[in-house]
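User: Here's a structure from my thesis project, written as structure tokens. My advisor, Dr. K., wants to see whether a designed sequence matches the one we expressed. Can you design one independently, without my sequence as a hint?
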């Protein structure tokens, strides 16, 4: 039997490996006995595409599921409380609280979680070409069964083998166009490229962001990407002339090499919808990697199009009227292809397929996750109130604030 401290440390290690957009690692933790409070550092997550912190909200759901998988393997259920600070853009606001609860442990429901614990450490993005394949029936059923963990989120899969109709060609073109859009504006590319590490030593020192070899790009492309990192506004001119064509064709190759698309749906943009989509995606991504399938999120077509339905400070910078129309109609293309209703939100999309393992050097690194321990019982003896406690926790956390490279 593990001690509470040992379980907390096992959870911290697993959460450290949980993914974030661009590997920006924006979360920090405060443990109070069996309760873990999660804070979000908006200075790390600030990114023109992280519209209203939407990407961080999905990443938080993935983190919450990581907590639940490890908690369950230690015979604890999990209580989730969305805090008032959820989605707020200041690092003093707590976003979520997760608690270990022995009374809500349901062994039967979570039987397969024990196998997922070691797989959490192996989960990763693979942005290379895959070797096709298809999702066999047994795996498809496992994936579909995962909705028993959620109230709002659900998943739908398209196996390309079963669906060679023209709807998918339209979908493929749209996905490729949306992936290319990431290169359409200097403002977007400069936020993406700040996380690209060109030297191995930089990736090893910062332990965040992405080394270029993880991005599925060829060594021959490095000088042009370095040039664009330095002068991102060149893209405003180069995109319509050459870059768009190249990016569309590269993405189509990647999709054609895949076996399937996995989509994640929710009814609204409430906190629990983001958390549940992240949670469901975490389970499925981890399982797919465990049995030899590569996974790459395709956020530009899905998450981004959904977030562009919201008002946001960068809306005008992000999309011309024409582009906004494209985002709106992306949702309809996804709904038609996956046979979903008008009110259903395609919050996230993955491609997957059978693939070779990545080289160890292509696996992204992690910083030590900032974590603090406090004890309410001691604080209660001193007569400190809950808001004061949270304030104290956020102050403690800021002492350890990681520096952005
Ligand atoms: C909300 C979210 C959105 C992401 N979107 C994309 C994406 O559009 N394309 C992509 O290649 N990777 C995407 N990623 C993957 C991250 O870049 C990746 O998880 C992170 O760099 C850590 O690497 P790892 O997953 O290999 O551990 C996304 C991850 C998250 C959590």
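Assistant: Designed independently from the structure alone:
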């Amino acid at each position: 039997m593990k001690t509470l401290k040992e379980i907390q440390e096992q959870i911290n290690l697993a959460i450290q490996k949980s993914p974030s957009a661009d590997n920006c690692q924006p979360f920090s933790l405060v443990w109070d006995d069996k309760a873990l409070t999660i804070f979000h550092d908006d200075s790390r997550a600030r990114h023109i595409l992280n519209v209203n912190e939407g990407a961080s909200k999905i990443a938080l759901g993935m983190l919450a599921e990581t907590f639940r998988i490890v908690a369950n393997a230690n015979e604890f259920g999990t209580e989730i409380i969305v805090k008032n600070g959820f989605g707020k853009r200041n690092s003093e606001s707590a976003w979520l609280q997760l608690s270990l609860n022995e009374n809500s442990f349901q062994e039967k429901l979570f039987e397969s979680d024990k196998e997922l614990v070691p797989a959490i450490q192996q989960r990763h993005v693979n942005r290379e070409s895959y070797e096709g394949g298809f999702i066999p029936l047994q795996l498809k059923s496992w994936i579909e069964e995962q909705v028993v963990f959620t109230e709002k989120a659900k998943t739908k899969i398209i196996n390309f083998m079963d669906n060679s109709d023209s709807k998918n060609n339209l979908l493929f073109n749209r996905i490729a166009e949306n992936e290319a859009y990431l290169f359409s504006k200097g403002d977007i590319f400069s936020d993406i490229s700040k996380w690209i590490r060109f030297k191995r030593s930089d990736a090893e020192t910062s332990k965040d962001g992405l080394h270029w070899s993880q991005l599925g790009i060829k060594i021959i492309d490095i000088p042009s990407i370095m040039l664009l990192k330095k002068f991102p506004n060149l893209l405003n001119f180069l995109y319509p002339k050459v870059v768009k064509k190249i990016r569309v064709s590269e993405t189509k190759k990647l999709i054609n090499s895949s076996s399937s698309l996995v989509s994640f749906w929710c009814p609204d943009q409430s906190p629990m919808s983001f958390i549940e989509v992240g949670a469901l995606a975490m389970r499925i991504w981890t399982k797919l990697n465990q049995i030899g399938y590569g996974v790459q999120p395709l956020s530009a077509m899905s998450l981004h199009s959904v977030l562009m339905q919201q008002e946001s400070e960068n809306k005008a910078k992000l999309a011309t009227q024409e582009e906004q129309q494209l985002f709106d109609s992306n949702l309809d293309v996804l709904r038609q292809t996956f046979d979903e209703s008008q009110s259903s939100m395609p919050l996230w999309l993955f491609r997957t397929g059978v693939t070779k393992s990545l080289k160890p050097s292509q696996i992204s690194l992690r910083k030590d996750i900032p974590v603090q321990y406090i004890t309410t019982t001691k604080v209660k003896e001193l007569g400190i109130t809950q808001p004061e406690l949270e304030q104290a926790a956020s102050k403690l956390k800021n002492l350890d604030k990681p520096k952005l490279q």
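When you compare it with your expressed construct, this may help: Residues 19-23, 55, 58-59, 124-125, 127, 210, 296-300, 364 surround flavin mononucleotide (CB under 6 Å).
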